[in-house]
Amino acid sequence: MKKIALFGICGKMGRSMLSELILEEDIRIIAGFDKINIGTDIGILTGREISGIKVTDNHEDIKLAKPDLIIDFTGPEVVYKNILWAIDSKIDIIVGATGLTKEELDNVREKVKKSKSKVFIVPNFSIGAVLMVMLSSLAASYFENCEIIEMHHDKKKDAPSGTAIATSIAINEKKKFNASKFLTDEKETVEGSRGAFSDGIHIHSIRLPGLLAHQSVIFGSKGQTLTIRHDSIDRSSFYPGLILAIRNLDRLPNFSYGLEALIEI
Ligand SMILES: NC(=O)c1ccc[n+]([C@@H]2O[C@H](COP(=O)([O-])OP(=O)(O)OC[C@H]3O[C@@H](n4cnc5c(N)ncnc54)[C@H](O)[C@@H]3O)[C@@H](O)[C@H]2O)c1
Predict the structure, then answer these.
(1) Which CATH number describes the domain made up of 2-121+236-262?
(2) pTM
(3) Which of 73, 151, 214 for a ligand 1 pocket mutation test, highest count of atoms within 8 Å of Cβ?
(4) Which is more confidently placed, 66 or 124?
(5) Which regions of the chain carry the CATH code 3.30.360.10?
(6) Which of 105, 152, 176, 198 could cysteine-pair with 168, CB 3.0–4.6 Å?
(7) Which residues pair with 33 in a beta bridge?
């Protein structure tokens, strides 16, 4: 039985994942962490019976509950602090929250080397999205350039998305497309028109109500383009990847990044 503390339990992802996790026979949610609805029974969050477990914003309460694993769906302002706390507390952590900077990621990678806990950072739990990244990396060798368009709901706090950054990193490891943001004879007449620039790739971020999580990776070469597109149309798309991560964490090293660590093509 895996004992899990769910961080960001009152948010959209937290509630959605909670409603599926509580149905699993090999998992028990033993604590819920959030800055809102403190003291609310977590059963109420999913419209179920009272569980006796109350939402807390106190890390000490989490420690007392003795979880085997933390799953973090908080957000960019607090996720880094939570990871460092989990490492110090010798608790494994699967991180779904996005918005970690490169420097923070490097610090976590270093810190966890000397620790007893595991950190698994998964910017996207959607298996389809992970395959999109892996297939993009495969296609990169055969094209002259590539740009990414990522589209998310208008409540998303960070841009570009963690998945877009992960895609640019994966492609850049395979092929270096652009040494600088602009070609020598290129200029923006309106600032930002060429989007962001990460790992040699332009990324364009769209935020609109009505969207959930979507990404197109567009490759171009003479006379042809290839578009690899993925759409998450419902938060349930993230659950199979989350449960895969939970059940396979034991076979991963102390630090892993991306669900790719568990998927073979
Ligand atoms: N990995 C994935 O597959 C995946 C999928 C969707 C969203 N996300 C990421 O998950 C995170 C949460 O997304 P969401 O849509 O549920 O957002 P949300 O805003 O609905 O939920 C975030 C929750 O975290 C809580 N929180 C924020 N700061 C806190 C703090 N300082 N202390 C305690 N609790 C705090 C909020 O109160 C809220 O309940 C985001 O970073 C998002 O980008 C990841």
Answers:
(1) 3.40.50.720
(2) 0.87
(3) 73
(4) 66
(5) 127-233
(6) 198
(7) 7, 56
Q: What percent of the chain has pLDDT over 90?
A: 93
Kindly list the protein residues whose Cβ atom lies closer than 6 A to any atom of ligand 1: 8, 10-14, 33-36, 57, 73-75, 77-78, 96-99, 122-125, 156, 238
Q: Is 214 a catalytic residue?
A: no
Residue 223 burial by Cβ neighbours in a 10 Å radius (0-12, 13-18, 19+): exposed
- In sign, the C-alpha dihedral spanning 235, 131, 163, 69 is positive
Determine contact, residues 21/43, Cβ cutoff 8 Å: no
Cα angle 185-148-101, degrees, rounded to a multiple of 5: 100
Identify the CA nearest to 148 among candidates 126, 127, 129.
129
CATH 3.40.50.720 domain span(s) along the chain: 2-121+236-262
Report pLDDT for 78. 97
Residue located nearest, by CA, to atom 30 of ligand 1: 35
pLDDT digit string (tens) for 250-260?
A: 999 999 999 99
Tokens of 42: 């977590």
Report domain 127-233's class.
Answer: alpha beta
Average pLDDT over residues 165-183: 94
Q: So what's the pLDDT on residue 227? A: 98
- Nearest CA residue ID for atom 6, ligand 1: 13
Find the 10 Cα to ligand 1 centroid distance in Å: 9
The catalytic residue among 152, 202, 204, 230 is 152
Ligand 1, atom 32: nearest CA belongs to which residue? 35
pLDDT at 59: 97
If you take atom 27 of ligand 1, which residue's CA is the nearest one? Answer: 74
CA of 211 relative to ligand 1 center, distance in Å: 17
135 CA distance to ligand 1 middle (Å): 28
Active site residue 54: no
